[in-house]
Design a protein that fits this description.
The complex is a heterodimer of chains A (129) and B (267). Chain A is mostly helical. Chain A is 39% helix and 0% strand. Chain B starts with a helix and ends with a helix. Classes of the chains: A mainly alpha (129), B mainly alpha (267).
Chain lengths: 129, 267
């Protein structure tokens, strides 16, 4: 006896899955490169600007404003005021008087009373014989 | 001005030459005195040895030796005193500005001492015994106070005269200062005149103080007499007073320096 058989659905073959091809790995350097270039360009622009500005100032005869230490020089007062010599002090009698006073002072200061020539001989003693 | 300059030059020469002149000639007399003093010391030493021998043994030989050395000692002592008198007479001659009367008085006193020593010398020459030697020695011993007083009076007078030399120089400087002040006053402002006058007054005061002290010492010369201890006290005190008198002149000369500083600058 033949048993009815259930018709089996026809096997539909699955459509082939298309796998996207793997993306080629981009290196990190290539990612940073544009940024670096931008930074370099920006720096160059700033640097060029500064240099150009300095050149401009130089050409204008101005220097870059630098913080300078200002030393205030206040003139020192002379310890002894400048004095005017009298006319008399430039004469010969004055010089002569000055010399004589200093000679006299030296002479009198060196004077002594203990001259050995004035030492009295006290020799009269009893014989004691 | 020219006269002032001439006076200044003369004073300068005096200041330089005077002290050397004072002592140059006295040196030879002093050397003779020192030589004689040395002979006296040797004689004294010999006598002391002989006397010790005589005191120990009392022998005739020791006695003769003691007598001989005693006689030599008395002769040498006499000579030493005579030499010192001559030295003092020479110093009187060489001391400048000693009053003639004073020099004459001192010379008379010293001549009297020389005369005494001449008599004494004759006595010593005639010594023949120990008793004679003792008597001769006592003759001079009894005269000791007078001899020493004469010596001290003379030396003090010489010191006064030497100090007076400075006073004379000071007087000349004072005269010069006066002339300079007169010149200066023409140039200086009136307010400075008072300062200059004050210095001059101080200098003059010092001269007066010197004169007072010096006169006091000169008056004390004749008070040096009596026993040797009293003589020494008076003598030393008067020498001290003389030193103080000289100090007045030293201070006066400092004031002269101040005056110079004042008149050097006009402002």
């Amino acid at each position: 006896m033949n048993e009815p058989t259930t018709p089996t659905p026809p096997v539909v073959p699955e459509p082939p899955v298309t796998v996207p091809p793997p993306e080629p790995a981009t290196p990190l350097a290539s990612k940073l490169l544009p940024k670096v270039i931008m930074a370099v360009l920006a720096f160059s622009a700033i640097f060029t600007g500064v240099v150009a500005y300095n050149l401009y100032l130089r050409l204008q005869g101005k220097t870059t404003p630098v913080e300078t230490i200002t030393v205030l020089i206040s003139p020192t007062l002379a310890p002894t005021p400048i004095r005017t010599r009298s006319q008399v002090s430039q004469t010969v009698p004055f010089s002569s008087f000055e010399t004589e006073v200093s000679s006299f002072t030296a002479l009198i200061q060196s004077a002594r009373d203990d001259d050995p020539m004035l030492s009295i001989p006290d020799i009269i003693q009893p014989l004691g014989l | 001005m020219k006269q002032l300059l001439r006076i200044s030059i003369v004073i300068c020469l005096q200041l330089v030459l005077l002290p050397t002149a004072i002592f140059a000639q006295s040196q030879s007399h002093y050397q003779s005195y020192l030589t004689q003093y040395d002979s006296y010391r040797k004689a004294l030493s010999s006598f002391q040895i002989a006397k010790n021998e005589y005191d120990k043994f009392k022998t005739l030989q020791a006695q003769a030796q003691a007598l001989t050395t005693a006689k030599t000692l008395l002769i040498e002592r006499n000579k030493t005193l005579r030499q010192y008198i001559e030295l003092l007479q020479n110093l009187i001659r060489e001391t400048p500005h000693m009053a003639t009367e004073e020099a004459s008085t001192l010379n008379t006193l010293l001549e009297n001492e020389k005369a005494f020593l001449t008599t004494h010398e004759k006595f010593v020459a005639s010594i023949s015994t120990v008793a004679d030697a003792n008597t001769a020695s006592k003759q001079l011993e009894s005269h000791n106070q007078i001899v020493l007083a004469t010596f001290r009076q003379t030396t003090l007078s010489i010191l006064i005269a030497r100090t007076n030399v400075y006073a004379i120089q000071y007087e000349v400087l004072l005269t010069q200062a006066k002339s300079l002040i007169e010149e200066v006053k023409k140039e200086f402002p009136v307010e400075k005149h008072a300062v200059i006058d004050r210095w001059y007054e101080q200098m003059s005061n010092k001269r007066t103080l010197y004169q007072q002290k010096s006169s006091s010492v000169a008056n004390a010369v004749s008070t040096i007499k009596g026993n040797p201890t009293d003589q020494i006290k008076v003598y030393q005190e008067q020498v001290r007073q003389l030193s103080l008198a000289r100090q007045e002149l030293i201070e006066g000369s400092r004031y002269m320096g101040e005056l110079i500083s004042v008149i050097r600058f006009i402002d």
